[in-house]
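Can you give me the bound-state structure? Components:
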Amino acid sequence: MASNSPQIPSIAELMDKIKSGKIFTEIAKEITESQIWTSSFRHGYADTPRNRVLQIASNVWLHLHPVKIHRHALRIKFTWCMGGITFLLFLSTVVTGVILMFYYRPVGEYAYYDMKYLQYDVPFGMLMRNMHRWAAHAMVITVWLHMFRVFLTGSYKPPREFNWVIGVFLVTFTLLLSFTGYLLPWDQLAMWAVTVGTNMARATPFLGNEGPFAEFVGATPRYDARSLLIGGSVVGPPALLRFYVLHCIFIPLIAGALMIVHFWRIRKDGGISGPL
Amino acid sequence: MAQAAAAPKKKIEAVPDKLHVWPYLVRLEFLCAIVTIVALTVWSIVIDAPLEEAANPTKTPNPSKAPWYFLGLQDILVYFDPWFAGVVAPVLIIVGLMLIPYLDVNPKGNGYYTYHERKVAIWVYCFGFLVLWIALIIMGVFLRGPGWNLFMPWQYWDPHKVVALTSVDLPYAFGVRTYNGAMLFGGMVLSAYFAIGTAVYFFMERKALKSVGFVRMFIKIQLLLIMVGMVIKIVLRLGFNIKYVLVTPWFNI
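Here's the bound-state model for the whole set.
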């Protein structure tokens, strides 16, 4: 391989190679023929139609895709990429969220100080928290834009009606995930935003103590839709624990299950929509 | 000239309609993921998530705002009681969205952008999403200050701003002063709104009744009337100082 002494090319030759793009094929050749490369990878990848199909069909992560798609489905002008980005942001919140869970205790006495600890003492704690929060906010926006795109292209029309319904559930669960997470920092912003939000539950007709017809059901401040949600009559430590469990376990599980159905139905309904 | 025009057309026809996902889609997804993750990381390095002082149940901030994505709903609390703005309206939004594919039976515009083939659908969705949802959120985030009063961006958020509460109920404005009379009047106005709206819609779309179906058309027009009714209520409140249309011992609208 390196038996002949290396020739040092002139500047003009080198510029020529860079301009023509030949330099890249030469570098690639230099790497893929090296001893390290050839000992690691036993054979090359032949770019044949059969291999292209196998790359998708025989890979557990990629086989979510069909092996072939319509040309229009690749156009970002058509898809806006928003569904995929929403899923990616969801995965980002899962990864950063699990890391945050190592440091955070959903207990009234500790929660706020764990946030401070995360921000000032844990290596990359602030970055993890920022990424978790911003990804969650971005996810709310991208899921709305995804829905807007799907509406504008009429993609909810037959045969995709049911997948639209699943999608509406997913939008709702995205908002609920974000809302339950909003309480966890246990600061003033969290407590009062969730107080404002959950106060609505006590106006639920029949089931909320201030809602219409509550007197026929017997709803009281300690025993109505709102107290079921927050475990008491004010947003206190029981609410923190409830929202934590909803945020980390209950809603992600349901949303994850619905996502599986959502993606599966895209394929079963004939791929992403397009003019046929 | 004719040859030059014909040549590229032929070329387009020769391009296959279906492409391999590997590499064409996977590489696009990969690029998209990289851009998103880089943007998220930069955003997270540059801007810190907010953390205020520790939660204190005895210290209510003014204004107390819900998370920004719910501020559209919080804003219609000005015009509706909590049972509607906080419970019934969100349920109607969710159920209404779910019903869209079953109510919109226009077969055109399936899988491509078009305005001309489905003007009404586009208008209704854009109005609901961009005006009633997004615009109200922007207003709630930036323009609502202490006491949920409206402040322009250049105005000082004065916690002692006095806003005269001079609004009256619709029956009162029309001279109906007895309690039962007001209830009757309000109920009649509300019923008439829905009855006339439904009747007009059915008359205008009478030819479609057979193909679309009664139930579908009925649900569709009720949802539309509720949406338009919310706008009417907002206009009544802001323009004519009307508080409620219907007042009953159990609930007010």
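A couple of observations. The radius of gyration of chain B is 26 Å. DSSP finds nine helices and one strand in chain B.
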